[in-house]
Amino acid sequence: MADDVAAPAPDAEMTDAPAPDGAGGEISTGGDHALNSAPNVGTGDGAATLARAQPAASDATPPKPRVFKIGDKVSALASFDGVHHEATVVDLRRAKGAEGKDEDAIGPADVSYYVRYAGMDKRLDAWVAGVNVDVLDPGMTRNLSDPLLGPGSLASPRKDSVNLGDGAPAEGRKVTRNLKRRYNEINNVAGSIEDLAPIDQKLEKEHDEKTKVKNIGCVEFGRFEVDAWYFSPYPAEYADCAKLYVCEHCLKYMKHEVTLLKHKARCRMTHPPGRMIYRHPRHDEGKPGLAFWEIDGNTHKVYCQNLCLLAKLFLDHKTLYFDVDPFLFYVMTEFDERTNKHAVVGYFSKEKWSNEDYNLACILT
């Protein structure tokens, strides 16, 4: 009795030629029996599998984890342009109502991520809802932190690449540390930590670790609402505040709008403390008048401390917050004729006695 499936004859040659019409998809083996090319086809009870299904290679993106970890590379939706960008998870927090959930039960809607976008200034760091954070597509990964390595950069072969200001073509240049420094100076780009001296690298890393997460989302100051850029050491009870309310006259800060409204009803300050040293009426121009006020940090300590805390939200490397005694502050205001009050629009400070004869310590407008 013949086997259910006959083995090919030793001298038989397999052919890749298409089967003739009516052959039913069979491949000739040169023997008395035919092998059917369809899988799981046989004769009788001893049917054999003649073709085994091979696992298909998949280029699909790996499944999205329930929770990313600090340090993970992700694709995060940016609020400033509505586009996903490569980012690094700096911190994470659970949403309200998800604090007691088990790790296995946590989903994208239960967590938010504080991310730092690759190649972008630290001021753009932000909290992003978990539903807007995805697994990083390998095609998105690129060296965005180095502006010298993209189209139109110093290393680009295009003739219209970045001009260094010395008339020399950038085409074909080797990207050196000096070239990167010159590019950063011309284009007002903050240099990388690796470009600093070792001692400065250590200090910068320590500073970044302490201030890596913004504690204030935005500030309501008078009729303006401004997104905060950096961390500021406000008291702990004001940490993780989505919006901080600041009185535009006395600079006191509050967590709730209703508190600000009650404060304004009883705030009697119409201008900064100290003495007016300059005034510029602008009635003819149809603009509010300007004035400068000199304030001694030793005499008006609380006001100057509040000014420094507010300024730190927009200055990354400001280190003076509370020790304001050795400084003079010069605050510029706009005069509102409707309310007969002065509103702060900028300031600068300087040391009373500087060993290096510096005449400027900090400036913000």
- Classify the beta-strand content into a percent band: 15-25%
The level 1 CATH classification of the domain at 234-364 is Alpha Beta
Termini separation: 99 Å
In terms of quaternary structure, what is this? Answer: single chain
Overall number of strands: 16
Largest pleated sheet: 5 strands, antiparallel
* Side-by-side strand order of the widest sheet: 6-5-4-3-7
Shape assignment: globular
CATH topology of the domain at 234-364: Aminopeptidase
Q: What does it look like?
A:
A hairpin with a 6-residue loop joins strand 3 and strand 4 (84-94). The chain has four helices and 16 strands. Among the domains are: 1-51, no CATH class; 73-140, SH3 type barrels, CATH 2.30.30.140; 234-364, Gcn5-related N-acetyltransferase (GNAT) (Aminopeptidase), CATH 3.40.630.30. The protein is 13% helix and 24% strand. It is an alpha+beta fold. The strands form four sheets. A five-stranded antiparallel β-sheet has the order 6-5-4-3-7, with no helix packed on it. Strands 12-13-14-15-16 form a five-stranded antiparallel β-sheet, with helices on one face.
List keywords for this structure.
single chain, 365 residues, alpha+beta, SH3 type barrels, Aminopeptidase, five-stranded antiparallel β-sheet, 4 helices
